[in-house]
Amino acid sequence: MSASPFGRVTASEAELFTLSLWQLVKEDWIAHGRDWTKPGFRAVAVHRFGVWTMKIKSKFVRAPFSILYKMLFRKVRNTYGIELPFTVQLGRRVIIEHQGGIVIHGYASIGDESIIRQGVTLGNRYLNRPLDAPKLGKRVNVGAGAKIFGDITVGDDVNIGANAVVLSNVPARATAVGIPAKIINSDNHHKFDIGELSQL
């Protein structure tokens, strides 16, 4: 199996490859309340179209679709304030709630059924490491205005609080809140800095 821009293809990515553009977009449409006018759905649909376009092997055949994709990408970015490049590893049924100030790093990954809200940034942390980007697991719930920076991993079923600034890994089923983000242990509600996780 061929490698993705991020290295070896994962099982989730392989599953995406087996689904048609229409199947993926239909799932996204249902996830967004069957409302094709929602900016979030439109952004995700354009992303899916971009991924589909770049799979066309013939440069001659791909060229007009590539031009159309670039036009649609800029339209979504400039009109709705949602920057979601086709290089993002986007899972199935990802929801983008609302619009405005949403910037997703081109090398970021977002797992199935995650939710991204307005004002969210997934980006690199250091200027000398421009390709570093967050990796979100499945069913990650990202609150409005949250910022997630660097080559970090956010586990499955994590909640990121509104306006939180996440700079380190977050374990599965945890909640991260504050600036810088602190973890709320789901078992005993004890709070500790994310940086302390490496000492546990």
From TrEMBL:
SUPFAM superfamilies, alphabetized: Trimeric LpxA-like enzymes
**The keyword Kinase is annotated on this UniProt entry:** no
- Indicate yes or no for the key word RNA-binding: no
What keywords are assigned to this protein? Acyltransferase, Repeat, Transferase
Please name the InterPro entries in this protein's record: Hexapep_transf_CS, LbH_SAT, Trimer_LpxA-like_sf
Q: Which GO molecular-function terms appear in the entry? A: acyltransferase activity; structural constituent of carboxysome shell
Lineage: superkingdom? Bacteria
Kindly state one GO CC term assigned in the UniProt record: carboxysome
Q: Which residues form the signal peptide?
A: none
| PANTHER family named among the record's database cross-references | SERINE ACETYLTRANSFERASE
The protein in question is named Serine acetyltransferase
Where does this protein come from, organism-wise?
A: Hassallia byssoidea VB512170
